Structure formats: C-alpha cells, structure tokens
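user: At home tonight, take the chain set out below, taking as long as you need, and be ready to discuss the fold:
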Amino acid sequence: MPEYLLDFNRTQLHNYLQAQNQPSYRADQILKGVYVKNYASFQEFTDLPKTFRTQLEQDFALRTFTEIDRVRSDVDGTTKFLWQLRDGLKIESVIIYEKRRVTFCISSQVGCPLDCKFCATGKMGLLRNLTPGEIVEQVLQMKAVSERPPTNIVFMGMGEPLLNYENVMAAADILSDPEGLGFSRKKITISTAGIAKNIIRMADENRPYSLAVSLNAVNQETRERIMPIARKYPLDELMEAVK
C-alpha cells in the first residue's frame, strides 16, 4: 500500500526527495500543491516533471477518503459528511455556516473511549486514533466543496482530541503552518471533555491554540454521572488546569 503523503512532515519529505535524487525545492512545490492549491491528484502538479509525478503516484496516496454520505440542512446549510477511511472505518465531519463565520468541525479519533451518556459516538468505544494526515484531510476535502472558506476550525467531531494529543497537535501545526494551510492559530479550537493533564501539557508547551472545555454540569456528582471521565479528572482539578 502506498504511503500517505499527508502524514509526511517536511523533514520526511526532504528525506524522500533526497532518496529520489530530486532537488530540495521540490518540497515547496509539493506542499504548495497539497495545501494551497488543494490538488487531489498528482497529475495536477504541472510544475513537476511528468516522470516524477508518475513516481509520486506509485509511492504515495494523496487522498484516501471516500465520501459515503453528505447531508445538508435546508434551514441553515449545515452540512455533515460521512467518510470511509482506507481501512474501511468511518468518521464524520461537519461544516457550520453562520452569517459571519464558517466553522469546520473535525474528528480526531474513530469512535471515542469516554462513554459520555449524551453522546452516540461514545457507544462505539475507541476503534483507533486518526493520523495527522487523516485529521488534515477532513479540512482539505471540505474546503474543496464548501460554499465559503472556513473562518474557524474546531476539533469537536468524533473522539477526544486530548487523548490523541501528538497527532492532533501535529495536525494543528500543519493547519496553521504558513507553508501549510496558513490558518490563524487563534481560530483553531481544541474541544475537550476535560483531560486535565494534557490541558497542562498544552500550556507547558506554549501551544497557541484556543481551548474549549465541555463541562455539561456545574457540580462533580452530576458530571460523574453523565461523563465518566470526571471521576479521573474531578472538577476542581480541571478548573485548576484551565487556570
């Protein structure tokens, strides 16, 4: 199976180019095609030699999602997508249209381990984490069909983002990289059920992204009843982490 190009960071891409005896500036051409021009096929990279485009097709998968379903609200245009991944598992993403904003809601895991009582995804359990590329591809796929460009990106689809910390941060870095999608870091929000240790880790690492905490109750007893993770991260500990 070809490797997934969206999972490659710049260093890995440079190593590949070196192995193929290609000049290093090819990395900029490839990244621009992937993230700025949003090419879906290597044959669209017309600034690359044809023989190298063919080599890329042999070595990499550029898009891996199959769109299974798309449902658009007649009321406000909110659009929900169901994607099938390369391994046959499925995830959801949503575009929310508002007067001055367009929000892309993206998934971070297939399923979710938290079993929140109000969430259907929790009943699936956790099947696996999404890779950085699979997180980013949701944005690229929706950007290609969105009625307007996104103004906000929220990690608030399937899964608990802070339980897939490394891959979520890698994806957020790609989304905000000036040589990637160049999205404003202030407009990228990580929504969490309250994984206190990784909220602290975000602060320690000076991650510049916004944070949204789903409390869903104002007291510990109720929170534990509807969000089992609250037993591990009590409300007072969570509030201290947020500070």
